[in-house]
Amino acid sequence: MLDTVVLSLDISEFRIMSTHYGRWSPDITNYIKPPYVKLGGRKFAVSTRTPTRNDELNGIYLPRLKLIKSTRTGGYSTRLYVEFSAPKIVFNNNFDELADSDFDNVCKQLSKALRRLGVAVDKETIKTAQVNTVHYSKNVILTDGKLAKMFVRELAKANISTRRRSKTKTYGNDGEAMYFHTSKWAFVAYDKLAEFRRSRNNKKELLEKDYYCQLSLFDEFTPATPFEVIRLEARYTDRRTIKTNLKRAGVTFSEELPFIELYSEDTAKKLLLYELSQLETATPDILSTERDLDRFIDNLLANQAKPDRIVYAVGVKKILEQYGSRGARSRIHASSSQWSRLIAKTNSLGFTRQDNDTTTTIRQSIEAFRRVKLTNYKE
Question: Where are the domains of the chain?
Answer without folding.
Answer: 2-281, 285-354
